Amino acid sequence: MTWNIRNGGQDRGGPDRRTLLARVVAAHRPDVLALQELRGLDVARFAADAGLTPHLARSPFGQPVAILVDPRWPTPSTGPVRRPFHHAAQRVTLSTDAGPLAVLSTHFYPYRGGRRLIEARWAATALRRARADLALLAGDLNTLAPYADHVYHPDHAHHPDHAHHPDHAHHAHDAEHAHRSERAEHGDHAEHAEHAHRAEHADHADHAEHAHRAEHAESLARLAPAYRRRHLRRDGRTVDTRAIAHLLATGLVDLAATAGPTVPTGHGRTPEFAEMRLDYLLATPALAARLVDVQVIRTPDTHQASDHHPVAATFTLTPPT
Question: In angstroms, what is the C-alpha Rg of the chain?
């Protein structure tokens, strides 16, 4: 499960939401819990109350993040990612019956897409250096995907059939071609034969990308200009999806692509958010093949516990014997 719990569960002058947070965690009993925005939270006590072991990464700029792990799962390797993430990044490697599982929890920069792209590169490198076929990037990535989310049904659990639907492969395919197209615009031209091959698909990729960004633009139009700018390129018109496009181009699979928005909730009615998905579970293909189900958890408790809903996935993995 990944969850941005907003300011450690207690806003200045606002209600104490820590009891609600603990109740949600107790109800779902995750083996691995990636948390973001932990300022002011006694993480050790919160983890102990949930029966989990905490692995915390602090940031000199923003807020801490952590990965809490059920002690049934051995953790032979753990530590913060040594890059200047705005909100830190923590990596834990767990032992499983299918081999090592590397999990990285992070929280990308909220204000500019260029900085998020840099952090996406750092995160992808950290996962690659873990040298684990099973790997998961979890967190509030503060950005939109290079494709529009599908229509969701709140009472419907999302299964691997959705995550591995051929449409999803096309999404990654489109993201890769969009990235290549952007490089070409800046003068990075391939040889004529390769360029001709790519041109065969260019119209399709451009059409899909423009359609998806138009759908994102409808959501962004509901935001005040100051918040809308966070999701736009420097031209003030193009939706910035580069961070997720880069992560998909490395081969990661967006497990919750059809699960619907993770913000807003009923807490605070913040003007930062329209209906959008900012929280992600991105898995290597080997881990995605073990997916049982994935969902954005929407309950009365999650509606008030934070300004983000948590995202949870189940895999066919067990602790080593």
Answer: 19
Q: What backbone phi and psi angles, to 5 degrees, belong to 52?
A: -120, 160
What's the CA gap between 226 and 205, in Å, rounded?
Answer: 30
Instruction: Please enumerate, as own/partner, the contacts of 214-217 that have beta carbons within 8 Å and a separation of 24 or more.
Output: 215/148, 216/144, 216/148, 216/241, 216/276
What predicted TM-score, i.e. pTM, was given to this entire model? 0.81
Where are the strands (E) in 30-85, listed by range? 32-36, 53-57, 65-69, 77-80
Identify any residues that bridge with 77 across adjacent strands, giving them in sequence order.
93
**pLDDT, tens digit, for every residue of 138-176?**
999 999 999 864 332 334 444 444 343 334 434 444 444
52 and 69 Cβ atoms separated by less than 8 Å: yes
How confident is residue 180, by pLDDT bands cut at 50, 70 and 90? Answer: very low
Q: 122 near 101, Cβ under 8 Å? A: no
Q: How far, in Å, CA of 199 to CA of 195, rounded? A: 6
Write out the DSSP string of 116-145: HHHHHHHHHHHHHHTT-SEEEEEEE--S--
Cα–Cα distance, 23 to 26 (Å, whole number): 5
